[in-house]
Amino acid sequence: MAAKQLLSDECSIAVNHLASYELHVSDAYLSMACNSTEDSVEPFLADFFEDQADMKRENGKQFLKYLQECGSKICLPVIKRPEIDNWQTGIKALEYGLELENQLTKLLVDLKTTASSKKEYGVLNFFGKFLDEQNKNTNYLQFRIECYKELENMNQEEKDLLKKPGEVL
């Protein structure tokens, strides 16, 4: 059995924060999924958000397991739940998801910087794949938001064309 690679305090704290934030994001996506099932216009978003919730929860669990394998203390900081109960529209939910993903990317980049400065190559190797995944998620959400906005604009233009002079829709 390989010897445990002990983490520096800085990396241990960063991984704990990252694990906690992954679980927080999972919770937010689950809330979005539950809210999206009521929206018949965008039913596929419920599946997307639920998949994201599952993936983030699994990532959080992997981070906790990593801490255990390194002999680090697990001490998850408390992160306040989103104050949004109703996401209103699919675009609003996607935009909030993008905010969460951007923060998650920042935490991963900060961990990478810390691990590099501490020469903790095991951390760099383990978390590198998660940073790649993050970049893909962020790009996908940006693309989705752009598509939705274009669709909204086209729908509005169509309504405007159908509107007769003096008629209010």
UniProtKB/TrEMBL annotation:
<comment type="similarity">
    <text>Belongs to the ferritin family.</text>
</comment>
<dbReference type="GO" id="GO:0008199">
    <property type="term" value="F:ferric iron binding"/>
</dbReference>
<comment type="function">
    <text>Stores iron in a soluble, non-toxic, readily available form. Important for iron homeostasis. Has ferroxidase activity. Iron is taken up in the ferrous form and deposited as ferric hydroxides after oxidation.</text>
</comment>
<dbReference type="GO" id="GO:0005737">
    <property type="term" value="C:cytoplasm"/>
</dbReference>
<dbReference type="GO" id="GO:0006826">
    <property type="term" value="P:iron ion transport"/>
</dbReference>
<protein>
    <recommendedName>
        <fullName>Ferritin</fullName>
    </recommendedName>
</protein>
<dbReference type="InterPro" id="IPR008331">
    <property type="entry name" value="Ferritin_DPS_dom"/>
</dbReference>
<dbReference type="Pfam" id="PF00210">
    <property type="entry name" value="Ferritin"/>
</dbReference>
<feature type="binding site">
    <location>
        <position position="134"/>
    </location>
    <ligand>
        <name>Fe cation</name>
    </ligand>
</feature>
<feature type="binding site">
    <location>
        <position position="22"/>
    </location>
    <ligand>
        <name>Fe cation</name>
    </ligand>
</feature>
<dbReference type="InterPro" id="IPR009078">
    <property type="entry name" value="Ferritin-like_SF"/>
</dbReference>
<feature type="domain" description="Ferritin-like diiron">
    <location>
        <begin position="5"/>
        <end position="152"/>
    </location>
</feature>
<comment type="function">
    <text>Stores iron in a soluble, non-toxic, readily available form. Important for iron homeostasis. Iron is taken up in the ferrous form and deposited as ferric hydroxides after oxidation.</text>
</comment>
<dbReference type="GO" id="GO:0006879">
    <property type="term" value="P:intracellular iron ion homeostasis"/>
</dbReference>
<dbReference type="InterPro" id="IPR009040">
    <property type="entry name" value="Ferritin-like_diiron"/>
</dbReference>
<dbReference type="GO" id="GO:0004322">
    <property type="term" value="F:ferroxidase activity"/>
</dbReference>
<dbReference type="InterPro" id="IPR012347">
    <property type="entry name" value="Ferritin-like"/>
</dbReference>
<feature type="binding site">
    <location>
        <position position="101"/>
    </location>
    <ligand>
        <name>Fe cation</name>
    </ligand>
</feature>
<keyword id="KW-0479">Metal-binding</keyword>
<keyword id="KW-0408">Iron</keyword>
<keyword id="KW-0409">Iron storage</keyword>
<dbReference type="InterPro" id="IPR001519">
    <property type="entry name" value="Ferritin"/>
</dbReference>
<dbReference type="GO" id="GO:0008198">
    <property type="term" value="F:ferrous iron binding"/>
</dbReference>
<keyword id="KW-0560">Oxidoreductase</keyword>
